[in-house]
Amino acid sequence: MRSGARRQAGARRGLALALLLCAVQGAAAQEGAAGGAADADRLRQAVRADYVLQCAGCHRVDGRGSSPHGIPDFRQSVGAFTHLPTGREYLIRVPGAAHSQLSNAELAAVLNWVLGEFSAAQLPANFQPYTEAEVAAARPNRYDDVVPVRHKLAETLSSMGFTLSDYSYGSDRKP
After folding, report:
1. In this model, does residue 2 exceed pLDDT 70?
2. Which of 132, 133, 161, 146 is nearest to 86 (CA)?
């Protein structure tokens, strides 16, 4: 399959997944249908399982990370990144996400789950969930060195009044 056709097929799968999630959640909310709620719960559990398999080894199941080992805590922190376009992109391009085995649609779903689960209060009022297309556009542009990117984002977000979790990895290279 050609690259363009693959992108279109991937975009259709992502759109179908988003529509399915909206339809399942809408049906469960409007009709209170036990079957719809069960489907939404299964989908949520599948995304959580992707997080556990691909992210929790470092960030832990509860999102608390391991500050002494340079793994930031997601709780009450990671949502702040979404206030900046470069912060949104950072969450896609950070090595653990960009190099994961997740498809672009799965990574978008995991990012949205992480933000909602661990840092919903830090999300902007106009937050737009990640999409497969957004992930597909940013993910191939991997960072050569993520440390200065994180430090610059932390500096900018701090000036906006946000407090990020500790990030000791590369602390000897702070600007």
Report:
1. no
2. 146
- Angle CA(156)–CA(70)–CA(72) in degrees, nearest 5? 55
Structural contact between residues 14 and 105, judged by C-beta atoms closer than 8 angstroms? yes
What would the two tokens of residue 95 be?
Answer: 């090595």
Q: Does domain 3-173 have CATH number 1.10.760.10?
A: yes
Burial of 81 (0-12, 13-18, 19+ CB in 10 A): buried
List the chain domain ranges: 3-173
Write the pLDDT tens digit of every residue in 119-161.
Answer: 999 999 999 999 999 999 999 999 999 989 999 999 999 999 9
Tell me the two tokens of residue 25.
């959640």
DSSP string, 82-125: GGSHHHHHHHHHSHHHHTSS--HHHHHHHHHHHHHHH-GGGS-T
Distance of CA 35 to the CA centre of its chain: 28
Q: Which helix (H) or strand (E) holds 126?
A: none
Give percent above pLDDT 90 in the chain: 46
**Residue position matching structure tokens 């991997």:** 142
